[in-house]
Design a protein that fits this description.
The chain is α/β, with parallel strands linked by helices and 409 residues long. Helix content is 25%, strand content 26%.
Length: 409
């Protein structure tokens, strides 16, 4: 019997597990999924916790709820992968052999990579919202905060969900307006990028939104360290930005097991063919989601589109054919802009976000690069879609390849 091993049971790994379980012959293939954690997090929901829109219950479910029957589930930390031997060594001593391997080990924050960030002010005046612990600590801090300098800082790229820091800024503007203390909160968005976002045209539009909401934008700021004593972030050029509350998006890196395996780049992301999703250096390994080094966004929608491509290419490879399906870098993101409205962007490797209607040309119901209430509802509805369709590997009415239909160039 052939062995398929999937490393990681987050969004990408669980989607692939369900998709492949539905099509592979159970008499020919044994599927094993490995993950050290038993809890599944709806990570886009972390953004809403500091503002009391979601609770922890809204973003947490047991991972086993989404595993099909007949799958071998191993709860253990990965020690390292030995690709030449076609095996995975686990921290509990198990050795798991494979014929085909799918790596979906994701990305996580590494605040310790920045000097002074994770020290005495951590979860006191410095917070992240990329973990449930950080989001809940920030929620508690905001309950009694009376205002001051709020700095949202992206440490370096790439990061998971590149629009999330902007969304946080927009929601902070709404939240403190609702509390009646917006005039006491000075919000500054600090990024190493030359603009508000990674895509130039969308960056200009989103930068305008920051300006309209009286959120200061500081670009090309590469943080070197945190001066905790004086509550300042300091750049490599010794430029200083003071804060009373620092919301950090720390360095994002791949799993430590990738480093131990010698398979990743300097951020522990695995060199991956940007179209076929095969690991560049290994014939029988695919990589999906945040674990890749692809120039596409690290976001749940991207993992969803990748999963459709990987499914076809995996079946081609195991049947002795070339992997011909091509991932085009498709990303689709709702951007919560506050006050019950949102923005939608849809783009890929070659095409920047454009205005128009989505997904039906001329009809929508969503509007691209426009702030509408319907886009906000789309963002809120996505949580239900995630738990009931996306994570279960079911088909959604959105093509994996980006379409120009409905877009205005």
């Amino acid at each position: 019997m052939k062995k398929l091993v999937i490393l990681g049971a987050g969004t990408a790994g669980t989607m692939m597990l369900n998709k492949l379980h539905n099509v592979l012959d159970k008499n020919e293939w044994q599927i094993t999924i490995v993950d050290q954690h038993e809890t599944h997090y709806y990570q886009p929901g972390f953004l809403f916790i500091p503002f009391n829109i979601y609770t922890c219950k809204d973003v947490i479910k047991p991972k086993r709820d989404f595993f099909p029957t007949g799958v071998n589930v191993i709860n253990s930390e990965i020690d390292k992968i030995e690709p030449k031997e076609n095996r995975v060594l686990l921290k509990d001593g198990q050795v798991v052999g494979y014929d085909q391997l799918i790596i979906a080990t994701g990305a996580k924050i590494k605040p310790e990579e920045t000097e002074g960030l994770k020290e005495e002010l951590w979860y006191k005046s410095i917070f992240d919202f990329y973990t449930v612990e950080g989001a809940c600590a920030l929620r508690d801090f905001f309950k009694n905060w009376e205002g001051g300098k709020l700095v949202i800082n992206i440490t370096e790229m790439p990061i998971k969900c590149p629009v999330a820091p902007l969304e946080f800024s927009f929601l902070a503007d709404w939240f403190f307006t609702e509390k009646g203390i917006r005039d006491k909160v000075d919000i500054q968005f600090v990024t190493p990028l030359p603009g508000a976002f990674t895509q130039p045209k969308a960056s200009a539009i989103l930068g305008d939104f920051l300006e309209k909401k009286n959120i200061k934008l500081k670009t090309e700021f590469g943080i070197a360290r945190v001066d905790a004593e004086n509550k300042k972030i300091v750049s490599w050029e010794e430029e200083e930005i003071p804060f009373d509350c620092l919301v950090t998006i720390p360095t994002n890196m791949g799993d430590d097991a990738i480093e131990r395996s010698g398979m990743g780049n300097e951020f522990n992301f695995i060199p991956t063919d940007k179209q076929t999703l095969k690991a560049l250096e290994y014939e029988n390994i695919f990589v999906i989601g945040d674990a890749t080094d692809l120039p596409s966004s690290k976001a749940g929608s991207v993992a969803h589109f990748q999963a459709d491509i990987l499914l076809e290419n995996f079946l081609s490879v195991v049947e002795g054919r070339e992997p011909n399906e091509k991932f085009d870098g498709h990303a689709n993101c709702f951007i919560e802009s506050g006050f019950g409205k949102g923005i939608l962007i849809d783009f890929n490797y070659d095409t920047e976000p454009l205005p128009g209607k989505f997904p039906l040309p001329g009809v929508g119901p969503f509007s691209l690069l426009e702030e509408t209430k319907m886009n906000h509802y789309g963002k809120i509805m996505f949580r239900w879609m995630y738990w009931n369709f996306l994570i279960k590997g079911l088909e959604l009415p959105i093509e994996s390849q980006m379409s120009m239909a409905g877009k205005r160039a």
